[in-house]
Specification:
heterotrimer; A alpha+beta; B alpha+beta; C alpha+beta; A: alpha+beta; Uridine Diphospho-n-acetylenolpyruvylglucosamine Reductase, domain 2; Enolase-like, domain 1; B: alpha+beta; Ubiquitin-like (UB roll); DNA polymerase, domain 1; five-stranded mixed β-sheet; 5 strands; globular; binds FE2/S2 (inorganic) cluster
């Protein structure tokens, strides 16, 4: 493993200053579960690791029905699924945090890191997209906000500019009669990277018979996690039915541009987009019905 | 030679100081610097759990933690589990249930199981299997390991 | 059936002797070894699957601060002598050496090219990157059928096919051809009413032990070489080191550390000679550890294969003929387990007419190594699927069909041996009566399958010495590395003889200077052969103790009897003394008692297993979920039933992994793209149910307690059993391993 320097930043400005000074040779260390492996395997050259876990802002974890969820960028997965109100209101995000790596990975890995690692197969990004999450980014020129759907730009690439860091993720409180669901297909039952992932969020009418609105997002079928816009909008106002769900699944399949690699073939992935979109939608709907 | 940092940490209940390079993982520090070789390296990339230990009360893969990150933290390894004259109930259960063959995965499984039972003292078989999915064992087929953990829970 | 013997120790479940060390993290495995002045070695590996090495320049690496030694194939004595020595053995020696450090060609991605020793592993790794190697990249040959084509690129320019004593004149990638014939195959098929002929493909799979290979070497100024490593056999490491380094065996001591799994993969040496070369050059102890990618790419997996099977039966269910062709990938150098596959494929059945052809073929993949019943799992995937199809066509219950045709004592295998008393039929009967098999199985997309398997097991040499302690305990010294509880199963056999509890034995596994020659822990031989040696050594102790009692009582030795741990006088004198009390009196009766035995028992009894699996197929994703699994197996006699169950469960789960997801995935350049535990996808505990075991005991006449090896055969049936269950679930016969979700989707016509 290459040699590098380690700094434990205590404040956001301190971290931003180092990132700004060192440029692309500096990386933020939060859970480290991707970063350390990539540097060890020489897939990434890093001269500075900036540990942000001591910074209060990135550890924030609050939820109320007014402000929704505030999730610090370095909050490890287990804290998310161990928080009851998050499980109740953002089950799709919780689904993802429970399947990222094994228990030991979930002790360190964080949703912020999952975003910044920008893997096309990242499990937490489709739920963030369907839950309308916003990324709070701080840099030398101040703070900006951006929808989660726009955060990743290519495999391993994000919108972050020199000196910028992801500080927080904000998720609005879902309306009543809403729920969300995330699942992925993997050949084993755990400890795998998604061959395809699909997240769905739905809001039903008061009678729980009609879909008021829906959002669908996909992982591992394009260079970045994808918001399936057409599949989402075509469901608005529809009765809950196999037909509507199948239409959405077909629309989701239409935007998938998967590759073949050791984790799955392109044909398999396209096929699975249909299967998983249906299952994600049904899962989210069922959760509203069960509530 | 890369620069070394002085780190102070709490290891199995004792304060410990060591010098390490930033690139040295906690696993490396334990094994190569402190000669505590109970945590094993099976993959060095978070996929086997042989290096599992408890950091500030939470299960982690020590191959994915930097040694320098443990400044001021609490580290529990398999070496700290047994009392001088008595094994920990999980260790007893592993022996009673013949839950190890080659034993290379055993320290990792035991630490993982401890973290589980610390948070969920009465897990179901499914909960045990879910929690331990990050720990690979190639010898046992897991049957006796799962039984041992369930046994330790009911003990 | 012989009478069931009553045992005091055998068949009980004591805590294993090395258990406390292993649950407390105190047991020292190879990588845990440390000594003052230790250097760390790292190996530079070929990025190409097939390339000529034009030049290697190590000067920049040598000059790098912290580097203490750099070695290449030039540092290997035998590699330099290869041209002078082109006999049969010498050719093999060149292969052996070239696999340690490539001399002229890199034959697989990951092939070792050079190595560096430095003050820490990071520096060694940095220095490796400074070694300049010029390659001429050649087209890789990655698949057995491609390699067999006459126009395939040649991997070894001088390799000519050996076929039953003859050598071909032209070079080829086919290293050898073997054939076994029994009866008249044409006649056999002519008698058949139903004939099934199918082709099968299996992928390259790895043993997947959790502990990577490791070795630490030290040369003393007097020329003594000591190597600490994790190995299945310290003596075979010593032999290989002596050959590769051309160094006197008497100057090499191999210390077997605890071993973190092997399954056949830790018999060949890889980093041991490299550590030795680096230690010699640097004058310091050097530790070389593989990382996980190295283990996948540069140690011996078990071969991919292409198998055709044709079997015929009469309409009343009698198998009349069986024919197969087994094309096995040897990897970069000749020596696949095709021979063992050929021995096992039809062994469970009494078939009059058999023809078996096997081909050993080199390809640009790592040299294959044994993996648990090597060759037999590939072979059984073919034969046991065809058996299932025949039974279905004939409308006979699949287990009944096996019983009708099952091999028994006196049946001759196609490769020659005649079976002594074996327990195949008994294993099938046990499965047939098991509540699992008799339970209903009818849910949609659920399927049930069965399959059987055979492994011959081996004997080979083992040595044991026993020292009697004054408190009536014994120290048992052995040379078999303990991979899965064999200290216990060997100690128990000595304890049984001496009438003492298992806990009264202190077994230790020692280095090659401290015990007689002992072959590897492999071939399911350890509890059988080293157990046999322990039995004999304990008998030796018993005889000597009888002499001591006789001396004490001033009677003739023949008047002393030993039973249940008590010596007694049978000539009318009222004398009795326990083993323990007599042990305290050794000093006064002539001094220490040391028992010894060195054995090479011929009667390793073959092992048979029959498995039942229930599974569910997700028709939308192609994923197979194992719901229930039962394995029956003839263990001869289970010395420590818990560890017999453990061997069965472990073997079954490796077989499940092989069946469903495990395989080496290569790109066109010959790079394995999934060389990590993440993407190689071995089963985790969340992928499995409990594995039920039924131990059948048909004593092996070749062992005093009836032991048969148990370790290997449980991996043989799972792929076929699972394929048969998939057929039951969805009506599709899978003929390619692994039966991964994408292959399932293709077979179902979904993609
Ligand atoms: S060595 Fe850390 S998870 Fe495998
Ligand atoms: S006992 Fe060997 S890997 Fe688990």
């Amino acid at each position: 493993m290459q040699a590098f320097e380690y700094v434990a930043a205590q404040t956001v400005p301190e971290a931003v200053a180092v990132l700004d000074e060192k440029g692309q040779h500096a990386r933020i260390l939060a859970g480290g579960t991707d970063l350390i492996v990539q540097v060890r395997e020489a897939k990434l050259a890093v001269d500075w690791m900036v540990d942000i876990k001591a910074i209060p802002e990135v550890n924030i974890l609050t939820h109320d029905s007014q402000n929704g969820l505030r999730l610090g960028a370095a909050v490890p997965c287990y804290q998310i699924y161990d928080t009851e109100s998050i499980c109740e209101n953002f089950p799709g995000l919780v689904d993802a945090t429970k399947i990222i790596g094994g228990t030991a990975i979930q002790g360190r890995a964080c949703v912020g890191g999952n975003l910044c690692n920008a893997s096309p197969a990242a499990d937490s990004i489709p739920p963030l997209i369907v839950l309308n999450a916003t990324c709070v980014i701080v840099g030398p020129d101040g703070e900006r906000e951006l929808p989660a759907a726009e955060f990743c730009t290519a495999p391993g690439q994000t919108v972050l500019e020199r000196g910028e860091m992801l500080v927080e993720i904000k998720i609005p409180q879902p309306p009543s009669n809403s729920s969300s669901y995330y699942l992925r297909f993997i050949p084993r039952n755990e400890m795998d990277i998604a061959v395809v992932g699909a997240g769905a969020a739905v809001t039903l009418d008061a009678a729980k018979q009609k879909i008021v609105s829906a959002r669908i997002a996909l992982a591992a079928v394009a260079p970045t996690p994808l918001f399936a816009e057409e599949a989402s909008t075509l469901l608005a106002g529809r009765e809950i039915s196999e037909e509507a769900i199948n239409e959405a699944a077909a629309a989701a399949q239409a935007i998938a541009r998967p590759i073949s690699d050791m984790r799955g073939t392109a044909e398999q992935r396209t096929h699975l987009v249909g299967v998983l979109t249906r299952r994600a939608l049904k899962g989210a709907i069922q959760r509203v019905l069960d509530a | 030679m890369a620069r070394k940092t002085h780190v102070q940490t709490q290891l199995n209940g004792e304060p410990v100081e060591f010098l390490c390079e930033a690139r040295q993982s906690l696993l490396e520090v334990l094994r190569d610097e402190l000669h505590l070789t109970g945590a094993k390296e099976g993959c060095n990339n978070g996929n086997c759990g042989a290096c599992s230990l408890i950091l500030d009360g939470r299960l982690v893969n020590s191959c994915l933690v930097l040694g320098v990150e443990t400044e001021g933290k609490t580290v529990e390894t398999v070496e700290g589990l047994a009392a001088p004259d008595k094994l920990h109930p999980i260790q007893e259960a592993f022996l009673e249930n013949a839950a190890l063959q080659c034993g290379i995965c055993t320290p990792g499984f035991i630490m993982s199981a401890k973290a589980l039972l610390d948070t969920n003292p009465n897990p179901t078989e499914h909960e045990v299997r879910y929690w331990l999915a990050g720990n690979l064992c190639r010898c046992t087929g897991y049957d006796k390991i799962v039984r041992a953990v369930l046994d330790a829970a009911s003990a | 059936m012989p009478e069931k013997k009553e045992y005091k120790v055998i068949g009980t479940r004591p805590i294993r002797h090395d258990g406390v060390d292993k649950v407390t993290g105190r047991a020292l495995y190879g990588a845990d070894f440390h000594t003052a002045g230790l250097l760390h070695g790292t190996v530079l590996r070929s990025p190409h699957a097939h390339a000529r090495i034009l030049s290697i320049d190590t000067s920049r690496a040598e000059a790098y601060p912290g580097v203490k030694a750099v070695v290449t194939a030039k540092d290997l004595p035998a590699a330099q002598d290869k041209i002078a020595d082109l006999g049969e053995g010498a050719v093999n020696l060149k292969y052996l050496c070239d696999n340690i450090l490539a001399s002229d060609k890199a034959l697989y991605k990951g092939h070792a090219i050079a190595a560096v020793a430095a003050t820490n592993a990071h520096i060694a790794e940095e220095a490796c990157a400074l070694i300049d190697v010029a390659y001429e990249v050649l087209p890789p040959v990655l698949e057995v059928r491609q390699a067999m084509k006459p126009d395939a690129p040649l991997i070894h320019e001088n390799l000519k096919t050996g076929s039953m004593g003859e050598t071909a004149d032209k070079p080829s990638n086919i290293a050898s051809h073997l054939q076994h014939k029994k009866g008249d195959i044409e006649k056999g098929f002519a008698e058949a009413d139903v004939i099934i002929e199918r082709e099968f493909v299996t992928g390259t799979v790895h043993q997947g032990y959790i502990e990577p290979h490791n070795a630490t070497a030290l040369y003393n100024p007097d020329g003594q070489l000591t190597v600490w490593c994790s190995t299945q056999g310290a003596f075979t490491v010593r032999e290989q080191l002596a050959e590769i380094l051309q160094y006197p065996i008497s100057k090499i001591k191999v210390v077997p550390m605890e071993i973190g799994g092997g399954f056949g993969g830790k018999i060949n040496v890889y980093v041991e000679p490299v550590a030795a070369l680096l230690a010699k050059k640097s004058g310091r102890p050097v530790k070389v550890l593989m990382n996980r990618a190295d283990v996948f790419e540069a140690t011996g997996p078990t071969p991919a294969s292409f198998i055709s099977v044709k079997m015929g039966a009469t309409k009343d269910g009698k198998l009349t003929a069986a024919q197969t062709r087994l094309d096995f990938e040897a990897g970069a150098y000749p020596g696949s387990p095709v021979g063992a596959g050929a021995m096992c494929i039809f062994a469970p059945y009494n078939i009059e007419n058999v023809l078996i052809d096997g081909y050993d073929v080199v390809v640009n993949k790592p040299k294959t190594a044994p993996y648990r019943a090597p060759g037999a799992t590939n072979a059984a995937f073919g034969s046991e699927t065809v058996i299932d199809e025949l039974a279905e066509k004939l409308n006979i219950d699949a287990l009944e069909f096996r019983i009708m045709n099952g091999a028994k004592e006196g049946v001759k295998r196609a490769d020659g041996p005649v079976f002594p008393r074996i327990g195949f039929i008994e294993s099938v009967e046990a499965a047939k009566q098991h509540p699992h098999y008799t339970s209903p199985n009818g849910k949609k997309h659920h399927g049930r399958g069965v399959a059987s398997g055979f492994w011959f097991n081996i004997g080979l040499a083992s040595s044991v010495t026993i020292n009697v302690n004054p408190d009536g305990t014994i120290n048992l010294v052995e040379g078999s590395t303990d991979i899965g509880g064999t200290r216990a199963s060997i100690a128990m056999q000595a304890a049984e003889v001496l009438g003492i509890p298992a806990e009264a034995v202190n077994p230790s596994v020692v280095d090659t200077n401290s015990v007689g020659y002992t072959a590897v822990t492999g071939g399911s031989r350890t509890t059988f052969a080293t157990g046999y040696a322990a039995y004999e050594a304990a008998q030796d102790v018993k005889q000597q103790m009888i002499a001591r009692a006789a001396k004490l009582w001033e009677v003739d030795e023949k008047d002393v009897q030993f039973a249940d741990g008590e010596f007694s006088c049978i000539n009318g004198k009222e004398e009795q003394i326990s083993f323990r009390d007599l042990s305290a009196r050794l000093g006064e009766t002539g001094g220490p008692v040391v028992g010894r035995a060195a054995v090479n028992p011929p009667g390793a009894g073959g092992a048979f297993a029959t498995h039942i699996v229930d599974l569910e197929v997700d028709e939308e994703t192609g994923k197979v979920e194992i719901l229930r699994y039962t394995a029956t197996q003839d263990a001869g006699k289970a010395i420590h039933p818990s560890y017999v169950e453990g061997q069965i469960q472990g073997g079954v789960v490796q077989g499940i992994g092989w069946a469903l997801n495990e395989e080496y995935i290569y790109n066109a350049e010959g790079t394995m793209t999934n060389a990590s535990f993440l993407d190689y996808r071995m089963p985790t505990c969340l992928d499995l149910p409990m594995i039920d075991t039924v131990i059948v005991e048909v004593p092996n006449p070749g062992h005093p307690y009836g032991v048969r090896g148990v370790g290997e055969v449980p991996i043989v049936p799972p792929p076929a059993a699972i394929a048969n269950a998939i057929y039951d679930a969805i009506g599709i016969r899978m003929t390619e391993l692994p039966m991964s979700p994408d292959r399932m989707l293709k077979a179902m016509g979904k993609i």
